[in-house]
Amino acid sequence: MESISVIIPAYNASATLPDAIESVLSQTYDNFKLIIVNDGSTDYTADIINRYAEKDSRIIVVHQENKGAGESRNRGIALSDSDWVTFLDADDIWLKNKLEFQVETVRQYPDASVILTRGIYYEKNISENFEFETLPVTPLSNIFETLVLKNFNFQPASALVYVRNFREIASYTHEYSGQDYYPFLLFALHNKPFYMVELPLYKERSLKGSLQRSTNSRYIGAKARVNSIRKILENRALYKNYLPPERVSVLKKGHDRFLCWMLSGARQFMPYREYVAMTLKEFSNFYNPGLFYKEAAKTLLFPCKKILKYISKTNT
Fold first, then answer.
1. Residue 186 per-residue DSSP state
2. Which secondary-structure segment (H or E) carries 221?
3. Radius of gyration (Cα) for the chain, nearest Å?
4. Where are the domains of the chain?
5. By C-alpha distance, which of 222, 219, 226, 217 is closest to 267?
6. Is 288 helix (H, G, I), strand (E, B) or coil?
7. Which residue of 8, 168, 246, 287 pairs with 252 in a disulfide if CB–CB is 3.0 to 4.6 A?
8. Which pLDDT tens digit goes with each residue over 235-266?
């Protein structure tokens, strides 16, 4: 049987953590260890984790000072003695067949290195009694280009990952948001095979006050992607066997794409002078100057757009 370590980073998650833990313990595939990293919580998270650990010997508890989700996941990976690792955010849940279907994918596709699943928002109801003759799995070809150039709708936390990928290729970054983009981009760069279980097995909450719903979420997520691509391009000698000229070109296009996203996100919450200064500062970082001029124009005209929008509202 495939051995799996499930890693939950938890920070002040007492309201949602029990549901997350229960969704792991109720999995139809049960050859796993559950590593819960309490990331310096100040609520009742630690008490909840300790109570569950007393009842189930598969649960491993880690208490640490607040270091962020990325470092918490890295801590869990370091403690894992399994062949595979997977992750669950403390405010989300799994459907009961999630691990079973991912393990079945490993058996059907022995070259699999990363197995994703589809996701669904927590508020939506869905039957867990899936019926199919063959498990619906899609090999994700050209995953490197997809991660860089396309709006690929996937939940990184759903992934079942061969643990050696993290130990030999990349770990999570310290970014506040988007810290999971960098390792998956490097796995793709190293041509690790990705597969997608075409079933919504990961349920994601969209909580009021969460980062996903904050005004700066677009900026933070895009900045993490820009930083990830810059890190690879700045250290391209390390990846020379995986970076032919056409891939370098893809990374440069993706860099400018996410840099435009970042500047667009900054306009939504930063004071005008700050995001104008940021836009001008990024001029030399664009590989395509034409994209910079488009963003600069949007930046300079943004206050006019807001004024016109306000006038339109007051006249209706």
1. H
2. helix 217-234
3. 21
4. 4-204, 222-314
5. 219
6. coil
7. 287
8. 999 999 999 999 999 999 999 999 999 999 99
